[in-house]
Amino acid sequence: MRKNWWKEQVIYQIYPRSFYDSNGDGIGDLNGINLKLDYLKFLGIDIIWLSPHFDSPNDDNGYDVRNYKMVMEEFGTMKDFDNLLCEIHKRKMKLVIDLVVNHTSDEHSWFVESKSSSNNKFRDYYIWKKGTNNNPPNNYTSFFGGSAWEKDSKTNEYYLHYFSKKQPDLNWENQNVRNDVYDIMKFWLDKGVDGFRMDVIPFISKHRNFENLTSTELKNPEITYASGPRLHEFLKEMNKKVLSKYDMVSIGEAFGIGQDSMLKMTDEREKELDLVFIFDIIRIGRDNWIQNHWSLKKIKKLFSDQSKIDKYHWPTVFLNNHDNPRSVSKYGNDKEFRVKSAKLLAMLILTQKGTPVLFQGEEIGMTNYEFKSLDQFDDLEVLGNLQKALDSGISKDEYLNHLNCSSRDHSRTTMQWNNTNQGGFSTTDNWFISNKNFNEINVENDLNNSNSILHFYRNLINYRKESHDLIYASYKDVDPDHKNVFIYKRKGKKYTYLIILNMSNDSFKYKFENLKQYSLEFSNKNSNIEIDNDEINLLPWDAFIFVK
Ligand code: ISL
Ligand code: CA
After folding, report:
1. How many domains does the chain have?
2. Residues 203, 118: one domain?
3. Which of 48, 96, 160, 446 could form a disulfide with 452 if both were Cys (CB 3.0 to 4.6 A apart)?
4. pLDDT bracket for residue 258 (50, 70, 90)
5. Strand bridging mode 249-253 / 290-291
């Protein structure tokens, strides 16, 4: 296995809007991030992944870019960006930025030109088609509700948008589009950024026949959208022309792809991408806005699958991001056992095989927010899908109940720094909600308490870093069928690690042959552990790392 910095380091995602407001306008900004770099360094973070910071009308909070070479006004200036990058590098950290090039904003100059007439030279930058009998060209649906086609009155043709109608999809068949994207990438790489997280990258190649989706395909259109015929060809070209020329990390957000395509995309011999984010773990049990029950057995299987891959691949490990609810609320117990279960999840993330990716607030165990009504949400997906939800036969209240488990907005409430008014995020009214539990759950509290979730993360990150043996160790699920315990072995060159996680509210005894040969390295308990004849007494959410 080839060693790489991006296999050994820990990534921390920042959603800039909600991170820290430095100038009192209620919106997080680049200078705000700058002020918190020492905090991230203290935590042990190596790589910061910044969600989009480009000029945008913010229909989808920056995932709709109007100008790729400009900084969003609310976040600051290009000078602030350069300064931030410099300060990050000074601290020996790295910066990965978001590359959103499956689509642009409809306010991007390319699209403004493109829609102005059918013979404009930018017409072919996007995907335009004639409708049939006043209907869209086919039955593709948008993730944010309704058809994926929008009719433009100027030419009476439809343009394609997998996301909102303010996010028209680029036409990657057009070599000029690809060259312009490579130019944007070089612009930022030449400034010194250390990599890209590539938004919905598998969607860039379209099925050119645009056949209707079958009723089964309509349930998960992302699978079709992610299987276009030229995807791997485009990625190879991008790699050859841009990625291979820099010491950087490329991370594809691979919504919609399965194991096969993923294996091809990240096989180092194929020269496409270094890493991908796949979603089977973080979206386990998800069906649109409905979060169904999920079982630990299934999650364990998914971790085993992604760890089994050969030496040419490397997985990522994450339970949070800006599109999903908070991990402690979903996989842990955010009431009675919040602290303990958050520490257990930290242990899981940092001892699995792969590069760990944390999301802001995870390190202090931030929780889901309890929304009281639909108008409290900011995310365009909520209203976008309302009609579809009602059509499926549920009431508005039921929709709200589902969203309280599944909404993207849970992760977008503002970062909780201390117990003052806005949780220390800002000095004024925020652009969005601050979860009122900031009185208890905040960075300052955790910094002052050596037994906190934050310190636990920090200690584990350090432990992981000091032990390359753990990072490259093999992986084996010891008891895949147990419904409450996740127990796995990582065998390194020198040491063998045994991780035991009780992911339940139950107490019981668990027997492991030869447990006595191991010594305890880490535990999330405040009391002593009880081991009797290779049998361990497990209390709710107990978590241990043993080593021999
Ligand atoms: O909410 C989702 C779909 O209903 C997510 O799965 C998400 O849309 C998907 O993972 C793609 O996400 C990325 O692209 C979107 C943007 O809204 C997300 O924030 C981004 O992470 C469009 O750019
Ligand atoms: Ca601000």
Report:
1. 3
2. no
3. 446
4. confident
5. unpaired
Q: Is residue 235 part of a domain?
A: yes
Among the bound ligands, the one closest to the CA of 56: 1
Residues with CB under 5 A from ligand 2 (ion): 21, 23, 25, 27, 29
Location of structure tokens 């107990």: 542
CA–centroid distance, residue 323 to ligand 1 (Å) = 6
Q: Is 255 in the pocket of ligand 1 (CB under 6 A)?
A: yes
Atom of ligand 1 nearest to the CA of 63: 23
Say which of 64, 74, 80, 253 is annotated catalytic: 253
Q: Which domain-ending residue is among 160, 193, 224?
A: 160
Whether 113 is a known active-site residue: answer: no
Range 423-443 average pLDDT: 97
Instruction: Tell whether 20 is covered by a domain.
Output: yes
Q: Are residues 98 and 116 in the same domain?
A: no
Residue nearest to atom 15 of ligand 1 (CA): 63
The protein residue whose alpha carbon is closest to atom 1 in ligand 1 is 323
Ligand 1 near 49 CB (within 6 A): no
Model confidence at 151: pLDDT above 80 = yes
Q: Please return the burial class of 432, using the count of CB atoms within 10 Å of its CB with bins 0-12, 13-18 and 19+.
A: buried
- If DSSP states are collapsed to H, E and C, what string results for 403-443? HHHHCHHHHCCCCCCCCCCCCCCCCCCCCCCCCHHHHCCCH
Domain extent, residue 27, equals 5-104+175-461
